[in-house]
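Fold it.
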Amino acid sequence: MRTPEYDDGDDIQVAVIRDWPALLAFADGAELPDDDRRLIAVAAGLATGQPVDMRAAVAVRGQGHVRCLAEAMVIATGYHMKYEVTATPRLTTRYAKA
């Protein structure tokens, strides 16, 4: 077995979604924060080609959500093998003070 060059040995948690409309319906009815609901909409849009209001989708709070959106775009465009989304010292310092 060949280990991919990006494998750092840590376990990777992954979810396989086969029914995106069902996930969207669940998200609409569940008590989820709006930020999470918007992230699910972006993921569904990337997976299915359904249009997503990107202006609303990027109106998220918090560094974690922004990073998830950036990583989703990197993966969806096929650049995940070339680029890694990492925090910069400036960003880390800014959020440490907040």
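The chain has a mean pLDDT of 77.
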